[in-house]
Automatic annotation (TrEMBL):
Pfam families referenced in this protein's UniProt entry, alphabetically: F-box-like (PF12937)
Naturally occurring in which organism (per UniProt): Arabidopsis suecica
Domain F-box positions: 21-68
InterPro entries from the UniProt entry: F-box_dom (IPR001810), Leu-rich_rpt_Cys-con_subtyp (IPR006553)
Stated name of the protein: F-box domain
Source superkingdom: Eukaryota
Transmembrane feature ranges: none
């Protein structure tokens, strides 16, 4: 085995020498932006933008904030931040260019109205397990984003009227995910109210997910009548549905991707698996919450 002295005297490969000359702060802005966009909003606001002035300039560019995902699903440390204020700041940075946003847990009626007031070009809105929100709050906010094509709201009870308001406000809506826990399914007095509202006001739907909804066969038929372009239909945990006879035949003939009431929901997105979170935390004070 070579001695440590002989190893230390071995010339460094030219590639390792070149590494000393590389200055990451001098990368072209477009390349830096492409790299930083792989991070989430928390990592950008708390860490990446503090690395150097060129990165800070890139992180303030509105093009960095066309999509906002303040992902706190598998990162308990994220809850130490004021996520609502962080989200508002990210929306402000978009300068009206926000296209897509997904919010887990911390959404409120005030926050989604703040987003809608500043994001007239918004096309995708996800509100997952945001328990403080109401159907009236969602409908009021969505009325300000008529270009919306994708809407996901979970664990929020919707009246038929609120869904009609959403459909009328967003004529281009193509995907609706309206999911609830099965234990609250039967709290809806009119089981088919949601289904009728969807059928009457959302004719352009291609994707519809109704996990745990209380609709019956009558409501399902109404959806098939009112949504002629529907290709993907998820009815898992919709235990008032009885897919037999003509209705079963109609669904299997019409729908390309059909999930039936008793199908497994193991692949439903509940936030339990979100992968690794990238941080630069070792370089910064974790209690520094200043984003500007």
């Amino acid at each position: 085995m070579a001695s440590s002295s002989s190893l230390s005297s071995t010339p460094l490969p030219s590639l390792m020498k070149d590494e000393k000359l590389r200055n990451w702060a001098e990368l072209p802005s477009k390349l830096t932006s492409s790299i930083l966009l792989r991070l989430g909003a928390i990592e950008i606001l708390q860490n990446a933008q503090k690395v150097c002035k060129p990165w800070h300039r890139v992180c303030k560019d509105p093009s960095m904030w066309r999509k906002i995902d303040i992902d706190n699903r598998n990162d308990r440390a994220a809850f130490k931040y004021d996520l609502e204020s962080m989200c508002r700041h990210a929306v402000d940075r978009s300068h009206g260019g926000l296209i897509e946003i997904e919010i887990w847990y911390y959404g409120t009626n005030d926050l989604i109205m703040y987003i809608a007031d500043r994001s007239s070009n918004l096309k995708s809105l996800g509100l997952v397990r945001c328990f403080p929100i109401t159907d009236e709050g969602v409908a009021k906010a969505v009325s300000k984003v008529p270009l919306l094509e994708y809407l996901e709201v979970s664990y929020c009870l919707f009246s038929g009227e609120s869904l009609r308001d959403i459909g009328r406000s967003c004529p281009n809506l193509k995907t609706l995910k309206l999911n609830r826990a099965p234990e609250i399914m039967f709290s809806n007095s009119g089981f088919d109210d949601n289904a009728k509202a969807i059928a009457e006001s959302m004719p352009e739907l291609r994707h519809l997910q109704l996990l745990g909804n209380g609709l019956t066969n009558k409501g399902l038929n109404a959806i098939l009548d009112g949504c002629p372009h529907l290709e993907h239909l998820d009815l898992r945990q919709c235990f008032n549905i009885n897919l037999v006879g003509d209705l079963k035949k109609r669904c299997f003939e019409r729908i390309k991707d059909l999930r039936c009431p008793n199908d497994s929901d193991d692949d439903s997105d509940d936030g339990s698996d979100n992968g690794a979170v990238t941080t630069f935390g070792s370089q910064f004070n974790e209690t520094d919450y200043h984003w500007y």
